[in-house]
Amino acid sequence: MSTALTLAEQGSSVVVLEAGEIGDAASGRNGGQVIAGLRHFPEELVETYGRDRGRRLYEFGARTADDAFALIARHRLDCEAAQEGWINVTDAPSGLDMVRRRVAAWRAHGAPARELSRAELRELIGTDAYLGGWIDPRGGTVQPLSLVRELARAARGAGAEVFVHSRVVDIARAGRDWRVSTGAGSIVARRVLLATNALTGPLNPPLARSFLPVWSYQIATGPLPDAITPIRTGAAISDSRRVLRYFRRDRQGRVIVGGKGTSGGPKGPGSFNLQRLTLARLYPALASIEPTYYWGGQVSVTIDRLPRFFVLDDGLFATLACNGKGVAWNLALGPVLAAALSGVDPDSLPLPPARPPAPIPFHRLKRVYAAAGSTWLRLRDMIERQTPVRT
Ligand SMILES: Cc1cc2nc3c(=O)[nH]c(=O)nc-3n(C[C@H](O)[C@H](O)[C@H](O)COP(=O)(O)OP(=O)(O)OC[C@H]3O[C@@H](n4cnc5c(N)ncnc54)[C@H](O)[C@@H]3O)c2cc1C
Questions:
Q1: Residue 188 contacts by C-beta under 8 Å, 6 or more apart in sequence?
Q2: Nearest to residue 133, comparing CAs of 85, 78, 77?
Q3: E strands present in the chain
């Protein structure tokens, strides 16, 4: 939607085809945490992409949260946007070294990151569960469903045509162009971007085999009065576990807690036991509160945890795999993808194009991978903390 908005503003003729309603998938269901950058250190990106491209990618990541909030402000997107920071916390003694490395890396880059002591965390986030952490003031929060709906409104306002309930079932060559077909009709376009994320499966199976779709679930309490709410900051909060937990307080005072989902999707309130346990452990005073909302969605995850931009063919592009960090990333990526769709050489863009998608071996076992992978990662979390783990 960010790409469509940019292109429409630049005067291109743009059509968005959405299978369901706006925000039906990850963009309307996420934790609303606006986080700058990737989880990779600059030297890791340089190792993967080479010096220039690695650095360019890191530079781009560094601006994503600022770019996202700037775009929200420029278009007056009504989505409870608050650039009050992203707090990353650790409950493992070994995590404190990582906190220092992260702060040092961002500060070396000129970003105003700083460490938070256990006492500061207790004050800000109202729990003693974490040994330390750091805050990145560039981050923050949004109401995700409002954001994506508002983006669609802005894109339409700029001239893009947005069709809902228009599932694309086929994309085929039509001379130099592409014919994009839904059950009800088709559109011929010079350039096409697939932005179907974790739900890419039926439309492009080879692309879908290049990532794992992983469920993430959330619960939210009802609005809590100030006297009761333990979270004193409007920042986004997540921990540094391999199977991470994320939480925040929203504008209305709800406490929202998210984390790993069960494989295959939620089957009722029992599927959310892990999130309820997290809420109770972090905030014992809220343990008896019945959540008002339960929901989940699918995240696209790559083995190297890097997002992908594919040039599939002449004029056919795809973007996916934000690895759970797509809110800032995708808003900021819109203008980059718009450049690719306008004919700019993809090799000159900050996110190097990957061609063609490399399949994850034995991808048909994706559910087994996801389940085994998260059990293994949770075991490692447990060993580092010497705490019992519940599944
Ligand atoms: C529960 C959860 C919590 C998350 N929390 C955070 C967070 O706090 N911070 C963060 O940065 N990121 C978070 N993420 C990740 C983030 O939401 C995603 O990276 C981002 O929203 C992806 O946006 P997208 O537009 O690429 O994909 P989506 O929002 O998944 O959109 C893809 C769209 O494609 C449509 N589609 C699929 N197939 C077709 C077809 N054949 N034809 C037409 N349309 C089709 C779908 O209906 C869908 O609307 C979270 C994700 C989940 C699921």
A1: 174, 177, 178, 179, 180
A2: 85
A3: 15-17, 33-34, 86-90, 114-116, 132-136, 140-141, 161-163, 168-174, 177-182, 186-189, 192-194, 212-220, 236-239, 246-249, 255-260, 293-301, 308-313, 316-320
- The domain covering 1-82+144-203+302-360 belongs, at the CATH homologous superfamily level, to FAD/NAD(P)-binding domain (3.50.50.60)
What are the residue ranges in the chain where pLDDT is below 50? 388-391
Q: Which two tokens stand for residue 275?
A: 């999130």
Are domains 1-82+144-203+302-360 and 86-137+212-301+361-391 of this chain identical in fold?
no
Cα(61)–Cα(49) distance, integer angstroms = 14
Q: Measure 334 CA to ligand 1 centroid, in angstroms.
A: 14
The one-letter amino acid code at 282 reads: L
Residues with CB under 6 A from ligand 1: 17-20, 24-27, 29-33, 35, 167-168, 195-199, 203, 216, 218, 246, 258, 296-299, 322, 324-328, 330
pLDDT at 377: 65
CA angle 204, 353, 315 (to 5 degrees): 60
Domain 86-137+212-301+361-391 is in which class? alpha beta
Q: What residue spans define the domains of the chain?
A: 1-82+144-203+302-360, 86-137+212-301+361-391
Q: Which two tokens stand for residue 285?
A: 């005073």
Nearest atom within ligand 1 for CA of residue 1: 25
Q: Report which ligand 1 atom has the smallest distance to the Cα of 203.
A: 41
Residue 382, pLDDT score: 61
Instruction: Tell which one of 27, 149, 243, 247 to mutate to probe ligand 1, the residue whose CB is within 8 A of the most ligand atoms.
Output: 27
Distance 114 CA to ligand 1 centre (A): 30
Nearest CA to ligand 1 atom 32: 196
C-alpha 327 to ligand 1 mean position (Å): 9
So what's the pLDDT on residue 364?
65
Q: In this predicted model, what pLDDT tens digit does every residue of 266-308 receive, in sequence order? A: 999 899 999 999 999 999 999 999 999 999 999 999 999 999 9
User: What pLDDT is stored for residue 391 in this prediction?
Assistant: 35
